[in-house]
Write a structure and sequence with these properties.
Shape: globular
Distance between the termini: 10 Å
Radius of gyration: 17 Å
Helix content: over 70%
Strand order of the largest sheet: 1-2
Structural class: mainly alpha
């Protein structure tokens, strides 16, 4: 039985909170960074303790809270295979990747980019790999599920392209790479939010 809080499934509250923590904490952190712009600075730059001494902690707190908030949503994805056993393997893999990604997010928060760049970059790469895997698995695995809104895959595929573009431009042409990083995070959170709404509307 789905856990509810005031009639709203816990998995939906979970992904809503994740979005709130992202925008509600990263935006103030970015505003406290002198001269910050998503067109010239990475998301991780907000957590730079040297260049953003008054707002770096917003970045770390945001990632830790998001990592925790995501867990009920990730576990709640079991509703997909409870109604359609054929997608169980795919959903289980997504759940494993999702939980690992939550761990990676905590590691990113623990290792600021200016104090531990090697560790920060490693866990950031893991984060992007997890995003790509979740998108591919969800789009391929859920496309035949009778309750899945296939139009949501348009958002997911755009996000996949933005993520690949960011990873390529990061080394090839860094000055325009950062906006694609922001778009990657914004679209993956948007996609997961709509997946939660999809589950709620279809009464999974």
């Amino acid at each position: 039985m789905t856990k509810m809080i005031k009639g709203i499934p816990l998995y939906l509250i979970s992904i809503i909170l994740t979005n709130i923590f992202y925008y509600g904490l990263l935006i103030p952190g970015a505003l406290l960074y002198p001269g910050y712009s998503p067109f010239t600075h990475t998301v991780s730059a907000i957590g730079n303790t040297t260049k953003n001494p008054n707002g770096w902690y917003f970045f770390s707190i945001s990632l830790i809270l998001m990592a925790i908030a995501l867990i009920p949503f990730i576990l709640g994805l079991k509703k997909w295979y409870e109604t359609e056993p054929s997608v169980k393997r795919t959903i289980l893999i997504i759940q494993i990747v999702g939980l690992f990604n939550s761990f990676a997010m905590v590691m990113i928060a623990i290792f600021p980019t200016d104090l531990a760049s090697a560790q920060h970059n490693f866990w950031s790469l893991m984060n992007f790999i997890c995003i790509e895997l979740v998108i591919l698995l969800a789009v391929i695995g859920l496309r035949k599920h009778p309750s899945y809104w296939n139009r949501l895959s348009i958002i997911a595929l755009f996000d996949f392209v933005f993520c690949i573009t960011y990873l390529y431009l990061l080394n090839a042409y860094r000055p325009i790479a950062t906006i694609f990083e922001w778009l990657t995070f914004i679209l993956i959170l948007t996609y997961l939010l709509f997946v939660g709404i999809n589950m709620y509307k279809e009464k999974l």
